[in-house]
Amino acid sequence: MPEEKKNIKSCTSEELEKLLEEMGEQPFRALQIQRWLYSERVRSFDAMTNLTKELREKLSHIFTLPSCSVDRETLAPDEAEERRTSKFLVGLHDGLAVETVLIQADGRRTVCVSSQVGCALRCSFCATGSMGFTRNLSAAEIAEQVYLASDRLAIREPSAQITNAVFMGMGEPLLNLQNVFDAIGLLSQKGYRMSLSQKRMTISTVGLVPQIGELMRSGLKTRLAVSLHAADQAKRAAIIPPAREHTLDRLRGVLVEYTATLHEPVTVVYMLMEGVNDSPEDAQLLARFCRSFLCKINLIDYNSIINIRFRPVGELRTQSFIRTLLDAGLHVTVRKSYGSSINAACGQLALEKTAGGPGKPESQTG
Ligand code: SF4
After folding, report:
1. How far apart are CA 215 and CA 37, in angstroms?
2. For a FRET experiment, which of 146, 224, 273, 315 has its CA 20 to 30 Å from that of 20?
3. Domains along the sequence of the chain with CATH
4. For this structure, is 79 an active site residue?
């Protein structure tokens, strides 16, 4: 029986170098091949024109070269020209799909990428959590979402460039740590078409303590966002199951260390949910939690999701919540839930697809 071909994009640089060496090739060929794969994004080995014909043929006998594709695109219809949200259902080589969101606002073009198909953590406010976990995305699949969003952007605005990437889509990025780190490497590689600054990439987590420590020690320059959503241990554990283990005390400890070591603020993301985490006492607790380390607070309104039970908070209560934080001397920004008309919150698009929902657009993650 012939040996099954391997996905070349699942190989690390070291694996590719080793394989090439075994084939009698020079190790520098690995860099050439990776450039074709991740910067030029060719779809066949034949297109790798600076490789010998013999090597291209050998590669095509050993490897497959799968690519991700945009299976569906939805543009929020109700947003002004300078503020647009597009959501993509990105098809993977094995028939699974994830969501990617492109947000054009405030002069930035930000791509929100998924890192896993589904998620095992089951936060109660999150559409992705209700899907369960299927698999991790490879580094290539994560990076490719940014390129696909860039291609779509170029159709509308040929001179426009992606300015930021956030790992805030489907899945918990810190549970797919090495692939996320490798994807950041691919996206920030000097000389590659994307070549995004690592400082313009943000990893978002629900607060996995040891992994935040690993990120701190990784040497990457990416920013960190932590989805807090409650500064009361019991409340937080009720909506974010991993918070039972990764308690507020442990989380505060690692964030104090992280900010003291890297001298960079952490973004504390707090999604206001009516009757859950929006009381004056909740605001006081949040202020107390955030005063112990360098941070800015990003309040977001809850984007109602199919099948999820929480509701957004009214304007008066939101203003009062913000006032408490400002009075405590904290830096607060309020993020509108862009694209709510297309459910641009991670998991909704894929959720509808899984549930066989209506053929309308759909994508909330921490
Ligand atoms: S909020 Fe993030 S960690 Fe929680 S279930 Fe959703 S994707 Fe997973």
Report:
1. 26
2. 146
3. 6-64 (1.10.150.530), 69-355 (3.20.20.70)
4. no
